[in-house]
């Protein structure tokens, strides 16, 4: 289940959270459309508050596509309610920029940010499922702004003894927005498990089973990993990874 920071009333979090509202009390798509135009304007992103694989997440650029996107997201929310017990429609302003993600663990109150994923291609809508992850060990020196946001959010949520997966957008001017955070690793755990081994020499499943052992989590940053979806021709073609493998940057 994703922790929804949007329920927080702490004004300090508005600096890295996009403007938004919950569509739960809108009686239909037209009511939500009018509220969106009044509060946010276009473009916006409509999505379930609780989900995975970007299901039901759609960019809306105008009134003509609002009703269709609303119906898709409503259907996704019904599915996630059956699976997780709660999911509601959220409508938020669209943030232009590159999308990235961080995986890690919270253990005895300490945050271990381990993996930094860059998503490709640039996700500009109308849908937001990436074709590739290029993953490297998280660098605390370069990622201090991400660390500060995670410290705020994870402390506020009370998350501990758990993995976490956080997704962000970086605007062309370098401002960072948090899109979502959940108590899981990326790819329902499979991507996270493989990339933890490649990038940090960690067995993710073993780590999950020993979060309560009272020991400091130790790891050794090493290579860079690539996850690529071979799902359709329109997603692009991976032509060569030879040079990356020769340099020891990619492990396939």
UniProtKB/TrEMBL annotation:
InterPro entries: ATP-dep_AA_Ligase (IPR052032), ATP-grasp (IPR011761)
SUPFAM superfamilies named among the record's database cross-references: Glutathione synthetase ATP-binding domain-like
PROSITE patterns for this protein: ATP_GRASP
Keywords associated with the record: ATP-binding, Ligase, Nucleotide-binding
Pfam families: ATP-grasp_4
Domain of life: Bacteria
Domain ATP-grasp: 7-213
One MF annotation (Gene Ontology) recorded for this entry: metal ion binding
Name this polypeptide is given: Carbamoyl-phosphate synthase small chain
Species in which this protein is naturally found: Xenorhabdus ishibashii
């Amino acid at each position: 289940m994703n922790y929804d920071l949007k329920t927080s009333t702490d004004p300090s979090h508005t600096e890295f959270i996009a403007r938004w509202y919950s569509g739960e009390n809108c009686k239909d798509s037209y009511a939500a459309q009018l509220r969106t135009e009044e509060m946010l304007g276009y473009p916006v992103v409509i999505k379930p508050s609780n989900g995975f694989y970007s299901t039901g997440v759609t960019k809306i650029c105008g009134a003509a596509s609002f009703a269709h996107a609303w119906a898709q997201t409503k259907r996704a929310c019904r599915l996630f309610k059956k699976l997780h017990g709660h999911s509601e429609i959220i409508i938020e302003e669209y943030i232009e920029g590159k999308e990235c993600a961080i995986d890690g663990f919270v253990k005895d109150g300490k945050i271990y940010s381990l993996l930094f994923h860059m998503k490709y291609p640039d996700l500009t809508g109308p849908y937001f499922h990436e074709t590739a992850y290029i993953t490297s060990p998280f660098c605390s020196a370069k990622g201090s702004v991400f660390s500060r946001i995670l410290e705020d959010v994870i402390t506020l949520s009370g998350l501990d003894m758990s993995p976490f997966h956080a997704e962000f957008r970086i605007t062309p001017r370098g401002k960072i927005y948090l899109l979502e955070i959940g108590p899981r690793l990326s790819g329902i755990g499979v991507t996270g498990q493989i990339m933890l081994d490649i990038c940090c020499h960690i067995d993710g499943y073993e780590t999950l089973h020993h979060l309560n052992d009272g020991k400091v989590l130790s790891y050794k940053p090493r290579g860079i990993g690539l996850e690529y979806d071979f799902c359709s021709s329109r997603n692009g073609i991976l032509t060569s990874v030879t040079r990356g493998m020769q340099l020891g940057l990619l492990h396939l």
